[in-house]
Amino acid sequence: MISLVNHPFDPAETLRDFTAEASDAGAIVSFTGQVRPTAKSGPVSCLHLQAYSPLTENGMRAAVETARRRWPISAVRVIHRIGDMAPGEAIVFVATASAHRRAAFEAADFLMDYLKTEAVFWKKETGPAGAAWIEPRAEDYEDRARWALSGDN
Amino acid sequence: MARLHFLGRLVDVTGHPSETVDLPAALTDTSSLRQWLDDRGAQDGAFLDPTVRVAINDELVIEPAAIANSDEIAFLPPVGGG
Predict the structure, then answer these.
(1) Least C-beta-crowded within 10 Å: which of A15, A91, A128, B64?
(2) ipTM
(3) Which helix (H) or strand (E) holds B49?
């Protein structure tokens, strides 16, 4: 299940709900990404994320389907913020449940690499020097390339 | 009338995220539309940039792609992930 939300959310509450739903799983892995207070260009006061529906949601759904094909995961939850957010706020949450830990770890890692590199988002940082759209980082593509070695994408 | 959407840095280039426009009949594909948009706003090649992808009616297209005056056409700079 995936969601784009344009308001702050509580990752702890989301994990509690997910854990209750996945009570028969042997392993639950979760990841929370937070807005960093600094970027290469300096301090960040506001991060703006723009999506384009339904391409953004379709891409996220396809990534979840790929994860489900590649790992025996029984449940998945993905939440991504859009709009304006402040440093320290949760921007992304991924949780996976499986019978054993390795599938849950790897599926969550795979989904985060997708979200950080290929997901259909445009990102703008605002700091003391003004606002700037952020270009993709080369190392993000390297993270993503790790998953191509062992089969389909 | 066609509906145009500008994403990411193209919002700053055009000054607005979307517009409804009556496309001239001479514009039959994405190449001529890109050129027309760039000339219209004197946008220094922002719309000619090959890293900017085009989606027509919510599908990414291989260019040049045919366009109609009723299409929803989006211009998508490289995505940076979340």
Answers:
(1) A128
(2) 0.89
(3) none
